[in-house]
Amino acid sequence: xxxxxxxxxxxxxxxxxxxxxxxxxxxxxxxxxxxxxxxxxxxxxxxxxxxxxxxxxxxxxxxxxxxxxxxxxxxxxxxxxxxxxxxxxxxxxxxxxxxxxxxxxxxxxxxxxxxxxxxxxxxxxxxxxxxxxxxxxxxxxxxxxxxxxxxxxxxxxxxxxxxxxxxxxxxxxxxxxxxxxxxxxxxxxxxxxxxxxxxxxxxxxxxxxxxxxxxxxxxxxxxxxxxxxx
Length: 230
Fold this sequence. Notes:
globular; five-stranded antiparallel beta sheet; Immunoglobulin-like; mainly beta; 40% strand; disordered C terminus
């Protein structure tokens, strides 16, 4: 086949190999994620509730394994920028823990990152999918072209979702099954140099009959996430 005009990297991350973390390993992940969240406790208004941590399927890329997570604040708070008289809301922490594999395959060199938001699915019943994302690397092509290698994890808010895909301008760059109501994807996003406008990833959910039941961009406005039929 001849060379293609848009050589976007596809399926760059290993598929999920393990089940949900358990035992001492889960404790280590919990501790590392809590460590990253603690930096924002004062700004958020309430620290992370360890019991609320929810782990998503792991993906391996760049010589490391990435395990996304979300968690809730211990107590509801009134955001600092909220109008006077606003009701308290539960803050959501989100981020990841990554690690390398030692000689015996054991996790070593654990690292973590986190952030928080007061905009949550609980307060937005019209959401079709609850997404979190973080840039974990860079993709560089020729002539200054490139994009952000992005870790994306989410929760379907509609019934029947069995798979998720990450699509860039009509091309599927990654796909993953929905496991225990959760999925994790890795794809290049904010791709520049292939036209006048940057290209952004679209996340799509699919049911068992391969019908699209939800679609949302990482940068979608409130009216851009309506489901479409495949």
